[in-house]
Design goal:
With 281 residues, the protein is mainly alpha-helical. It is built from 14 helices and no strands.
Length: 281
């Protein structure tokens, strides 16, 4: 009996060790590119070219060049404005749509929901030319309003489908109690449902902002100078004859700061929201 217990313990320790090694390997593989980008921002271009990714003799020249580049700083401001604006609009509209799809009964409800999903699955490359023509006609090309609307077009369907299980999981008792107390539909949505689905709203806001922050194709085609966002500005650092790797990686590291700040500060709410949504779904 003791021998069997000992073998089971050894087997369990062996399996745990293998899982630890596999997890550590996956973590190293995932984090290595990020570490290379971060460390390369503190290197000279010649060191990046000639000495490889593991040589590290820090210098702040690349950051000085990037932070003194007014075009890049303006693009960061544009990315922040576009990301926040498109996220707020997408959350409000998407929450209203999810509320209507889950709390009301009407014909073609499922068809409408899957239509939104179909819109989200359409490749951006097939939509960017029609958007370019339409925005050019409406004089919205190379404007913050235009790029915000473009980002809203792919964020809203995502928010709708992400919030559907959260709204569907709210018990009818809350809704009925609010109606008995004389609450209007508007009050029920804003004062009852909005607080109850707040974990889902946090998750949707984070992912909507990150998708807008990292979006490149629409920003490349639909902007030129005035509304250019940070990903396009980073791409501009490739240079005419050779990439300026130090400035490229420094700018990339600066773009990573909001991503890390948002995900780390809201990590608990993101996990809670994803778990809640999975359970309710």
């Amino acid at each position: 009996m003791k021998a069997n217990v000992g073998r089971k313990r050894v087997k369990k320790m062996f399996v745990s060790f293998i899982l630890f090694i596999v997890s550590l390997t996956v973590l190293i593989v995932e984090l290595m590119p990020i570490m290379v980008v971060i460390t390369s921002g503190f290197k000279r271009d010649i060191d990046i070219w000639a000495r490889g990714p593991f040589y590290f003799r820090p210098t702040f020249n690349s950051y000085k060049e990037v932070l003194s580049n007014r075009d890049f700083l303006m693009s960061l401001r544009n990315s922040l404005l576009v990301g926040v604006s498109s996220t707020v609009i997408s959350i409000i509209v998407g929450a209203m749509a999810s509320y209507g799809l889950t709390r009301y009964v009407f014909k073609f409800k499922e068809a409408i929901a899957y239509t939104f999903l179909g819109f989200r699955m359409i490749p951006q490359i097939s939509l960017v030319i029609p958007l370019y023509v339409m925005f050019n006609y409406l004089r919205l090309r190379d404007t913050l309003t235009g790029i915000i609307l473009a980002h809203v077009s792919f964020n809203i369907p995502y928010v709708i489908w992400l919030l559907l299980p959260f709204f569907a999981g709210v018990p009818r008792d809350y809704e009925e109690a609010a109606r008995v107390d004389g609450a209007t539909e508007k009050q029920i949505f804003w004062k009852v449902f909005f607080p109850l689905v707040s974990p889902g709203l946090v998750v949707a806001s984070v992912f909507a902002f990150l998708m807008s922050w990292n979006e490149f194709l629409y920003a490349l085609i639909l902007t030129s100078v005035n509304a250019r966002t940070a990903p396009v500005a980073v791409n501009g650092l490739l240079g005419q004859y050779a990439p300026r790797w130090g400035q490229l990686t420094a700018a990339g590291t600066i773009m990573l700061i909001p991503v890390f700040a948002i995900t780390l500060s809201l990590q608990r709410y993101i996990i809670k929201g994803l778990i809640s949504g999975g359970i309710k779904g």
